[in-house]
Each structure stands twice: as structure tokens, then as C-alpha cells.
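Summary for the steering committee. The consortium agreed at its last meeting that each partner would contribute one worked example illustrating the joint modelling workflow. Our contribution is presented below. We chose a case with several input lines so that the handling of multiple components could be demonstrated. No manual editing was applied between input and output; the record is shown as generated.
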Amino acid sequence: MAHEHKLEIFRGLLKFKSNTQKIWGVLIFLTIVTIIEVVLGIIKPEFLMGYVLGMKALNWIFIILTIVKAYYITWDFMHMRDETKGLRRAVVWTGIFLILYLVFILLQEGGYVFRVYDQGYIKTDF
Amino acid sequence: MSTTVVNAGQDNQTWAGGNEPLKASYGKMMMWFFIVSDALTFSGFLAAYGFSRFKFIDSWPIADEVFTHFPFLHGVDAPMYYVAFMTFVLIMSSVTMVLAVDAGHHLNKSKVTIYMFLTIIGGLIFVGSQAWEWNTFIKGEYGAVKTKGGNILQFVDTEGHRVALKDFVVANPDSERVQQERKNGLWFVSEGTLPSYTIEEVLHGLEAHDNVLVRTQTLTEEGAKTVLSREASINQIKLNGLKVVEGANLQENEYGSPLFADFFFFITGFHGFHVFSGVILNIIIFFNVVVGTYERRRSYEMVEKVGLYWHFVDLVWVFVFTFFYLV
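What follows is the complete predicted structure of the assembly.
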């Protein structure tokens, strides 16, 4: 059973000699990203508290970094990088499409309910 | 390494059977499909959390103020350090898992054994940490007052630091109220644990301490909680105070909206359950490795399959971490 791994990350910017080496490389990268997230979460820099597209810039950074982490966990730890295009798309596109759809609907609805409480006549909190 | 599929293809006919267009074994592919459906379950939970949070966007608890504890460091304000540690433990155990898979490809039994063992240890540390988080969350630290409308009022000093109820409220020793159990009062009717203080005692304590103010759940423009003036504080407790809330359960919690604790218990609980079952699966596979099942099979694919599940658990935690603790 041949197991060929693609040994480069960052679109070929970083090449590893063996699969084990790549695993440690990805670990270092994920650790750096987590540290950045925690540090930003604790100091909360003032200049990132402005709103971009309806959400705090800091929160956008957190979400983007999370997706970056998810990408490397799936691609390198779960070996998605070595799977065929068909399997990759069947898993990733299905998930992303359904999740975005659900998140959009629920957040939209949540915002609407908030405005009903905020501006409407209902004053009950439950 | 197909042990069951007989290659029935004759003369390389495409539809004659035995083709693997995705070049993945049956077991691995089914694990991927399970992961997709499980990912949808978790996103359902997280999206529901987002819904409730958007619904109460101007009064949702601030996570850094809730999760400030670190084991063995009492009274030290350590927002999120412990959760960051837990995240690191889980990523680390993901790494040992992928190293086990890699060693399996080289049919290196002793290395697979060591790495599987380390993965199990990492999983156990994580589940233990989560139990500790739950315990701290349920016990609570400061205590709060619930209003008749169901909102939570917390206490701060004039500098805005949180003040615990026990620091300014004195329990009246002559208080007649005892907890009703099944054996006394009305038969077979009982009630939950009584809070340490009554609302009258809180009011006395507040009136006696000039430097204590009430903090409501409403967020200001800057994203901090609103602190009331001295008269408004006393008025609020006098007119709206219903009972003292200490810690958290599914009905009420001292941190704010009841939904916050509900989602905390449900989402981290469901994730913890996944980690727990992952540890069990890892232990089973570990013993199979030790007794040499995969050595005889000349294939460590089972390690790879259970590894996929384990990485998925890590993946979910990355999202829970972001949406529960950071955003």
C-alpha cells in the first residue's frame, strides 16, 4: 500500500522532507495561531474594536484564524490534501454550503427578534 | 489493501465493478460521511447559540469575565488561559494521533503503541479539564440577585471590580427558613438547595456598604456592563429583587442570561461526550495494536479511521473555542 503524502504547505512556500517533519511544522503553525488568538482576546487592542461589515474587526480576525486552523487540521492531520478531488469536494462543499445557509438564517432571525424586543412593545425577558 | 472486495472487472470495463473512483477504502469513506453529518449537528448547536446571542445582543455575558479561573491559582484573574491550555492539549493529542497513523504506514508497531498511548493521555487530560471547568462554572464565585423579570443584577465596587455577596452581606442567624425535604413539611415534596442569603439580607448589606453598586446586564456602547448609581442600586434591589442566585444550573445562573449556561452545558457537554467516546475508541484500538491484530493484518488502517474521528473532535473544539470564549 503506497502512501504518498504531499509534503508542502502554504502553496509550496514551505517544503518538508518527511511526513513526520510536516506534522511538527503544522503543529508549530497551529500553536502560533492559537497564541495570537489568545493574546488578542486578552489585550483587545483598541484599534480593532471598530466595526467592519457589521461586526467588530477583532471578531472577524478570530473567525478567519479559526477557519485557517480548521483548514490545516483537515488538510494535514486528516490527510485531506492526499485525497482525490471528488472526496474533498463531497465533504467540504456540502458542509460549507449547509453551514453557511443555516448560520445566515439563524443569525438573521436572531437579529430580527432582538429588534422586536428593542423597538417593539414587548418588554418581557425570558 | 482491499480484503473483501473482489476485483470482478473484466477487460477493464468501467462498470464491471471493483472501481474506486475516490481511491478511499469503504471504512474511511464512511468515517468521512459520519464526520460531515456530525459537523452539521455541531454547527446546528453553534448556530442556535448565535441565534440566542443575537437575540440578546445588548445583554449577553462577557466570556472573559466568566472563565477567569486557573487550577491552583485562587483569586488570580486569568481570563481564558485555561481554555487556551485545553486547546493546546487537544491539538497536541491530535499530533500524536497523526504520528501514530504515520508510524502505522511504516508498520512500526512499537511507535504506534507509544503514540496511541500518548493520544489517550491527552484525551483524558482534556476531559478532566472540562470537568474542572464545569465544576467551577456550576459553583460560581460572586453570586448575584435575580429580578422579578428574570434579569441578573451583579455587584461591583466604585472602581468597577466585582464584589462577592459574602463580602458585604451578613446572613441573619435567626432566619427561620429551612430547606424543605421529602421527609418534612408536605410529604414527597422537596425543593432545591437554598441560597446562602435572602433578598432582605442583601438589601441590608447593600445599604450598609457605601462603596457597593449594582451592575446590570445591559451593555454600554463600549461593550462593558452598565453600573447603576448608588440610589438606583438600592432602588433596583428593593423594588425588583426576587432572590439570590449562586453559581449556575439550567434554570438560572449568576452570569446573566439563562441561555448562556444552557448552551455552555449543552455544547461543551456534547463535545466532551465526543472526546470521551473518542478516548474509549482509542483505548480499544490501542489494545488491538498491542495484541498485534493489525500487525497480522499487515495494515494499520483502523488507526487511521479512529484518527479521523479524533481529529474531527479537535476540529470542533477549535470552533467551540472561538465562538464560546473568544468572539
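Residues 84-126 of chain A form one domain. Helices of chain A lie at 19-43, 57-77, 85-119.
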